[in-house]
Amino acid sequence: MQTLCENNLEAFLNLEYINTEFAVADFRLDTIAFDRQVNAFVIIEYKNHRNISVIDQGYTYLSTMFNHKADFVLRYNIQFKDNKDLNDFDWSQSRVIFISPNFTKYQMNSINFKDLPIELWKIKRYRNNTISFEQIISASSNESVKTIAPVLDTDIKQEVLKETKTYSEKDLTDVAEDNIVDIYTELRDYILSLDDNITIRATKLYIGFYRGRKCVVSIKLQKKSLVLWINTDPDMLDDSKGIIRDVTNVGHHGNGNSQINISSCQDIGYIEDLLKSFCTQNNTDVRK
Known about the structure:
The chain is of the alpha+beta class.
C-alpha cells in the first residue's frame, strides 16, 4: 500500500513526494510529501490496524514536525535541490493524512471538526487491479476541535492548535468592500454551476476551487479588487480582450499562470466565458 501510494502521490493526492520512512525525534514517519498548492508539508501514514486514535497520532506527529522544522526543510531542499529556509513555508497549512483499507466508525466520527488538520482516505484494490481512492468527508464540521475534551497531552494539543489554522470563506471575504464581495459571489456561484465536482477550500492567501485534489481556479479578495488565477497557461485561453496577465515568471499566490485583476463588473460575462472555455478544455461537466 505504501509503495503504491508513494509511486502515485500526484495522481492520488496531487502531492509531491519528498521522503519515505523519515526518521525524526523518536518517530519514523511513513511518507513525507509536499502540497505546492498551499506551500505546506504533509505527513502520510498507512494503517492496516483499526485500533488507533487518529487524533492522538495525528497531533503527535504534527507537534513533532513543528519542533523539528529544520529537518523537514533540509529534506525538502535535498529532494528538490533547493535552498529554502523555515520562513519560506506555510506551516499553518500542515496536515496529516491517514490512508487505510478500512476505518472504524469511531475513527471516522473523530474527524467531525471544522479545523482539524487531519484527513482520512480509504483505498481499495479490486480483483481486476483497479484502485479506488476516496476521502472520508466529515458528516458535520461546524464544531471546533478546541471544544473537545483533552484527549491529548495539553502541551501537544495547544502547540498544534497554535501552529495550524483552517480558514473559512468568510475569513477571506471580510477584507473586501461589499461591491467586491458581490463580484466574488457571482463568480463563485458561476464556477460551482459548471461542475458538480468542484468544491471550495479556503487557504491562508486565497479561496481555491478544487476539482478532486487539483485547484482549477483561485481567487484572492482585496479591499477594492480581487485577483483570479486560472490554472492553465495564457496561450491555452482565447483572450481576445487581452485581460489575462501571464505570471509564469512572476511570483503570485494562486495556482496557474493566467491572472486576471478585477475591480468592477465590467468584464464579468467575458471572464465567465473564459472560465467555461477552460472547464470545457479540461473535460469538466459544463452546464449548457
